[in-house]
Amino acid sequence: MSTPHWPEASTVELEDWGAGANTLAGAPRASGKILSKNPDGSSECGL
What we know:
mainly beta; two-stranded antiparallel ribbon; 4 strands
C-alpha cells in the first residue's frame, strides 16, 4: 500500500471506527483512515 496523498483532505470520507471501549464519561466515537497495513491485514498506522 503506497502512502496516500489527499490534496483536498476535507473531502476524504472517514471510516467509523466505533465507540471507545474504556471511556470515563459520555459516548465518544472514533473515525479515521488507515494509512498502512501489516502483511496480515492488521492496521499499522492511521489518522
